[in-house]
Specification:
The protein is an all-alpha fold. Helix content is 89%, strand content 0%. The two termini are 36 Å apart.
Length: 197
């Protein structure tokens, strides 16, 4: 969160963040549990989701090329590659899951380092340890994924996505709770100031 101090001074933004963090936290917790208890299902769901993103992107690129420069063969080639990649991942999801494995390993490393950066910005806050714990788990997940790739990808993709989403949900709910407490403390101090004046 860039501008953490500015974030704390904006009461409306805090209220919105607290509300939406609670909703997103519950959703992340539930999706995380699905991934933990049904990892193959989550892995295949992720592969199909990525496949449809490629197909939709390819169609969009093709449409853009058609409307802007129909003679642009590189635009048509890019659209074709995107659509073909999406179709291949949809038809053969297991190799797609293996490819997702490497992508997710990189994601977990980046998520871990981003969590450490956020924890550095929130130094001294009550739930800072949860953000650090989230970062540590993300780094561990990235390492384990690299060790068992590619054969363990079918189970590990869903399991690790589930674990990461679960802890992201815990962090969001904790941050929502901390902001609610911060709002209550701010309201109490404001009412005490008005009574003394």
């Amino acid at each position: 969160m860039v501008g953490y101090q500015n974030f704390l001074n904006d009461k409306e933004l805090l209220k919105q963040f607290e509300k939406h963090s609670k909703i997103a936290g519950v959703i992340f917790l539930l999706l995380g549990l699905v991934g933990i208890f049904y990892p193959v299902f989550m892995s295949l769901t992720a592969a199909y989701f990525v496949a449809w993103l490629f197909i939709f992107s390819g169609i969009t690129i093709g449409y853009h090329t058609y409307k802007t420069n129909p003679k642009d063969w590189l635009g048509w080639l890019k659209a074709f590659i995107y659509v073909l990649t999406g179709i291949l991942v949809a038809i053969f999801p297991v190799p797609g899951v293996a490819a997702l494995g490497i992508i997710l390993a990189v994601y977990f490393f980046m998520d871990g380092f981003a969590s450490f950066a956020l924890a550095g910005q929130m130094k001294g806050q009550k739930y800072n340890w949860l953000i650090i714990l989230n970062g540590i788990f993300s780094i561990i997940l990235g390492i384990v994924f690299l060790v068992y790739w590619p054969f363990g990808s079918l189970v590990l993709v869903g399991l690790f996505v589930g674990i990461s989403m679960f802890f992201d949900g815990v962090v969001l709910l904790s941050m929502s709770s901390a902001i609610k407490k911060l709002e209550n403390d701010s309201d109490n101090s404001s009412s005490n100031d008005s009574k003394t004046a």
